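INFO  loader      accepted 1 record
INFO  loader      residues=114
INFO  predictor   begin
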Amino acid sequence: FFFLMIRRPPRSTQSRSSAASDVYKRQVHGVFHPNIDLQGNVCVPQLRADWKPVYGIQFMLICLEFLFNSPEPNDPLNQEAGEMMRENPKLFAETVKNTLKGKTVNGETFPKFI
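INFO  predictor   done
INFO  writer      dumping tokens
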């Protein structure tokens, strides 16, 4: 279960109140994933380097779906998860299962999903 917030940069000509109206809400807490940090921020490599204003929300959602199903451990936002996935895939899979069960991993307690 995910709640997604997408932010676009405020325009320099906007007032603070109108810029605030451009903020869309997102949270992805409690996921042990190479491309999602423990605060819920998501790193989508396709959007970082190749972003163009013509990309719509559908493109971003497809990128997110792909990232959730195919994590990118070589460009991690969560360094620990990325390193574990690269160096010990079995331990990574076990850690993910434990986090989904709501267990504590390295001092971080995760919400129970299964």
